[in-house]
Amino acid sequence: MILNKNALVDLLNHTIKERRDLSWKMGTGYHNGIDISIYEILIYEVKNNKTIGRFAYNGDSGKLINQRIIGHRQKMADNIVDALLDINNYLKQRLNRAY
Fold this sequence. Notes:
- This protein has helices at residues 5-16, 80-98; strands at residues 22-31, 37-45, 50-58, 64-69.
- The protein is α+β, with helices and mostly antiparallel strands.
């Protein structure tokens, strides 16, 4: 799987689109200088800076290394796109329950 970073940004923006209280950050968590780049994505509540989700993935392959979603237990996804789709659905359900 070739990872398209623009698609990830679009998916993250879509995830927080309906939730003005949420934002996200993406950065390099680790790079060995040769071939391995590990990126980290944080999804957090803006008001109190509380982390909702944390994802670490291989920047080249998109393979998910670690994920944590506060308040939601689930099997770890295989890749970052699947993990972001999972949190998107989780947040949508949380939003629907709030109304």
